[in-house]
Amino acid sequence: MDFLQQLRIGTRLMKRVIGFQKMQHRIHSFFSSEVTFGEAGVVIGICLEIL
Length: 51
Description:
By secondary structure, the protein is an all-alpha fold. The protein has one domain (3-50). It is built from two helices and no strands.
């Protein structure tokens, strides 16, 4: 495994971590306020991107 491959995998993992943190933040703000269908769709979209 060369350096470029490691770098690519590293950035992919970072994107997933950042995406997961954003998702957690969104879910948390959901429960403190009413959820609209649009917001729920965004979160589901983020979940699918992570998977």
